[in-house]
Design goal:
mainly alpha, Ferritin, 2 domains, 316 residues
Length: 316
């Protein structure tokens, strides 16, 4: 096994800087306190790996621009995507560290008994960090964030496929854009209605034994919030595939622009879905972009087929 304690030292320094930087910017007091505590522990972990590296004669570099830039990236992520997703991303990082350190601990002859005992303590710390982050995630309630992410992703795939199909039949960019917006409006209304009915039914089922007026009102308010969140998020996802046609682009340029804008958006949304679902974010982002492009290309082919064989082309 290619053991590089200097790499682990760098990782722990990134973690310590990340928690410290996020704590400075965090306005939520309990979260800021948690981040400060985690930062202090990560500094101790970095000291452990530094000692291991120096014992083996490895060259140790103090935290520099690369480590500080990585830490700043987490802060930037928190600014754009919110507390819940940021905590989930940190949680994934802790899980990765636990897995890597456990593999090192189990590798025969890699560490002496004293080092293994200290590493075991580090692993326990990382497990405590994961648990603390899970509890914090539950406290900030990520359910609404999930609704937003999945609403946007649904719109991106559905509207891109629809617009791609229309582009194979309709010549005028504005007509393609209007058709896409109609599909988006229909999806927004249906998603909102579905979310309202689903949430209201779920809330009523929970309170079925004693459905008082106050509980019924609470159920209604919760359902309205769910419907509004789902509708708004779906509507956001409508614009990337439609925008190139709305600004007057046509032909191949419009089609490619729509694909590129949608692919980039799908990758970002997929990355966020990966964070929420606990899978590799980059892999999930690529998967969602590929699925969206595949659906769009298939629908565009259907549009071209309709134009060629069914004579439904609108070219004036």
């Amino acid at each position: 096994m290619n053991f590089k304690p200097e790499k682990e030292y760098s990782h722990e320094n990134v973690d310590a800087l990340t928690y410290a930087e996020m704590a400075k910017k965090e306005k939520d007091a309990p979260t800021a306190l948690l981040l400060k505590r985690l930062a202090a522990v990560e500094i101790a972990h970095a000291a452990f790996w530094k000692k291991i590296a120096e014992k083996r004669g490895r060259n140790i570099k103090e935290p520099g621009l690369i480590e500080k830039t990585k830490a700043k990236t987490y802060v930037l992520f928190r600014k754009f995507f919110g507390l819940s997703l940021s905590i989930k991303l940190l949680e994934l990082h802790e899980v990765s560290a636990i897995k890597e350190y456990t593999e090192l601990w189990n590798t025969p002859g890699l560490l002496d008994e004293d080092e293994k005992a200290l590493l075991e303590k580090v692993i326990d710390d990382e497990k405590e960090h994961e648990l603390a982050l899970i509890n914090e995630e539950l406290r900030v309630n990520p359910d609404r964030v999930r609704d937003v992410i999945y609403g946007i992703s649904d719109a991106l795939v559905e509207v891109l496929a629809a617009v791609s199909g229309f582009a194979g039949v309709l010549a005028k960019p504005l007509i393609v854009a209007v058709a896409g917006l109609i599909v988006g409006a229909s999806g927004t209304l249906s998603m909102g209605a579905g979310a309202y009915v689903s949430t209201k039914s779920e809330e009523e089922a929970k309170e079925s034994n004693a459905l008082t007026d106050s509980k019924a009102e609470k159920s209604h308010q919760s359902a309205l919030l769910s419907a509004a969140t789902t509708s708004a998020s779906y509507l956001i996802g409508v614009f990337p595939p439609v925008l190139p046609y709305a600004v007057g682009l046509g032909g191949t340029i419009a089609l490619l622009s729509s694909y590129l804008a949608s692919a980039a958006s799908l990758f970002v949304v997929g990355f966020l879905v990966g964070i929420v679902s606990g899978v590799t974010p980059g892999h999930k982002g690529g998967e969602m972009a590929a699925i969206g492009m595949g659906a769009a290309l298939a629908t565009h082919a259907l549009g071209l087929a309709a134009s060629a064989y069914l004579h439904v082309s609108v070219r004036r």
